[in-house]
Design brief:
Layout (H helix, E strand, L loop, with lengths): L2 E7 L2 E7 L5 H8 L18 E4 L2 E4 L12 E3 L12 H8 L9 H14 L5 H7 L10 H12 L1
Helix pairs in contact: 2-5
Length: about 150
């Protein structure tokens, strides 16, 4: 039976009717129209659907929407907009970290969480943190360079 939840997404509160088995990624994309968050593997191993849930990095394909009831979700759309890019978004563009666009939103959200926790990470810390975010375009060097540029 559907249940009404209230979630705050990128600072805006939303009431949504969801069945118990509806995933957060589906609510974000289908119900709220926030298509920056992608879905690829649906089992939490690729990082494409990464969002922040109360500031913590999560795979939104593994989080039931009802688990987000009363909580704050931040998607790529909440980090900046075309007129006011976040430092990471700008660094990804300037350093070649933005490639095909499938993994990029999850990469940027994950890197945002990294820089919040470790403002000046080493290359090894970046590699370890970003391990769960796969890039099929093999742009890992550009992604690393982008994160380092945003951190400096």
């Amino acid at each position: 039976m559907p249940q009404q939840i209230t979630i705050s997404v990128n600072g805006s509160r939303h009431r949504v009717q969801v069945p118990a088995d509806r995933m957060l990624v589906d609510v974000l994309r289908d119900d709220l129209g926030l298509t920056g968050t992608k879905e690829a593997c649906s089992v939490g191993v690729c990082g494409v659907c990464t969002v922040l849930l109360d500031g913590e990095m999560v795979s939104s394909c593994l989080v039931f929407a009802i688990q987000a009831d009363g909580r704050e979700v931040t998607t790529i759309e909440g980090l900046g907009d075309p007129d006011h890019l976040s430092p990471l978004q700008r660094a990804f563009i300037e350093n070649g970290g933005f490639q095909c666009g499938i993994c990029t939103p999850g990469q940027i959200v994950a890197a945002t969480a990294l820089l919040t926790e470790h403002p000046a990470p080493s290359d090894d810390e970046i590699r370890e943190w970003m391990t769960g975010n796969l890039c099929r375009c093999t742009g890992y060097y550009q992604i690393l360079r982008s994160i380092k540029a945003a951190a400096s």
